[in-house]
Write a structure and sequence with these properties.
Length: 207
């Protein structure tokens, strides 16, 4: 993408991960996943909407190229109630995760091992809630999580650190700094999901 055009956008501070690097990393992740699941008959992949739609679209095709077992795809919607751009100061604020139209409602995921794909792990509230939903309400047997980004929190409260530690995160694309990022599916107040790269935002532009 034209970095001149990006640098003219006053909401964007800088490119954190360029498009090419994302593409390379997805091939690596797909190879790793394909190897780990090579003995399986099939894969059951659950994507978390909305943010994971770009990542999963690319990962799905990379998995096929990597020779992964045949995969079925399911989506559920999960979202945090609250502000549209979080800052480090919001860390301790409780948020509620709502689960929307859910994957595998007809019981297809019961007893299955699921690869759960999400755009970013931040405080872990969304993934914890989604895991609980998949396990308790859909009867999923085992969950492995794949995130494109893992946000390295600077000073998480102990309960957030514990929540994150408890998650079965097996595949991570990149570490991200503890700030608001956007692009490649991730939004800034609903926008910028269509950027082909990951950018750091100027949070002041969203106040
Ligand atoms: P968590 O529940 O605190 O881990 O936050 C994860 C969810 O919040 C993800 O599903 C994202 O949709 C969203 N999110 C967290 N951090 C960012 C960010 O920096 N940019 C865009 N979305 C984010
Ligand atoms: Mg999300």
């Amino acid at each position: 993408m034209d970095s001149q055009a990006l640098s003219r956008d006053s909401r964007i501070e800088r490119v954190l991960i360029p498009e090419r690097r994302i593409r390379e990393r997805i091939e690596e992740l797909a190879a790793e996943i394909a190897a780990d699941y090579r003995d399986r008959e099939s894969l059951h992949i659950v994507g978390v909407l909305t943010g994971a739609f770009v990542f999963l679209a690319d990962l799905a095709r990379a998995l096929r190229r990597a020779g992964a077992p045949p995969a079925r795809y399911y989506f559920l919607q999960a979202g945090l109630y609250g502000n549209s751009v979080k800052t480090a100061a919001d860390e301790a604020l409780p948020s509620t995760v709502r689960i929307g139209p859910a994957a595998g409602e007809s019981g297809e995921l019961a007893g299955r091992d699921v690869l759960l794909v999400e755009d970013i792990l931040d405080r872990g509230l969304t993934l914890s809630r989604v895991c609980r939903h998949l396990t308790e309400e859909q009867g999923v047997r085992e969950i492995r999580i794949c995130v494109l980004l893992d946000k390295i929190l600077t000073a998480p409260p102990p309960e957030i650190a514990a929540l994150r530690r408890a998650l079965p995160v097996k595949y991570v694309g990149f570490s991200a700094p503890d700030r608001w990022v956007a692009g490649y599916g991730l939004d800034a107040a609903g926008l910028l999901r269509d950027l082909p790269c990951i950018v750091a935002l100027r949070e002041s532009a969203f106040r």
